[in-house]
UniProtKB/TrEMBL annotation:
SUPFAM superfamilies: SMI1/KNR4-like (SSF160631). This is SMI1/KNR4 family protein. Residues 47-152 form the Knr4/Smi1-like domain. InterPro entries: Knr4/Smi1-like_dom, Knr4/Smi1-like_sf. It comes from the Bacteria.
Amino acid sequence: MYKEVDTLIEKMQAALVKEKEGNPQFYAMQLITEAEEKIIRTVSDTWRLPEEYLYFLKRYVPEKVSWCTDEYISLHIYGAKDILPGQSGYNYNHVTDEAITEWPTNYLVIASDEGDPYCIDLSRGDTTIYTAKHGMGYWDFSVAYNNLVDFLHSVLRPRTLGSARTMRMNLTITTKY
């Protein structure tokens, strides 16, 4: 159904395996697995997600993978079990147990790079990805990618063609949230 998403997840897995070959201490996370049904049900009950994104969440199951490229310093793409805690500090303050009223109510944070959120607007029903800089005192969102597939492609290639920098990936295993 979403063959392009499957292909990209396979490429992400291959990039992790390649990194492990060059660095034996690197732990390659298996990304092509099925998320626990209970976690998917919790996410689905909490938000009405675009079908393509829900499909992705069922198959992208990291503990915590940080993608570092020319474009990203340390991009964390949330899996299903990370999506709820990933909202903290954006639309929800877990310290005061209150909603953050300045946050657009329909925006779901699906990834972050050094605090800069990458979101989908749940009111649209598509997977257009929006981003904004954090720490500005306000949120000024703009379209980062036209869809989820374009966003996933971005973690596999540096933005600057011909750059001497190569893609690096850091992996941190987290067992508790």
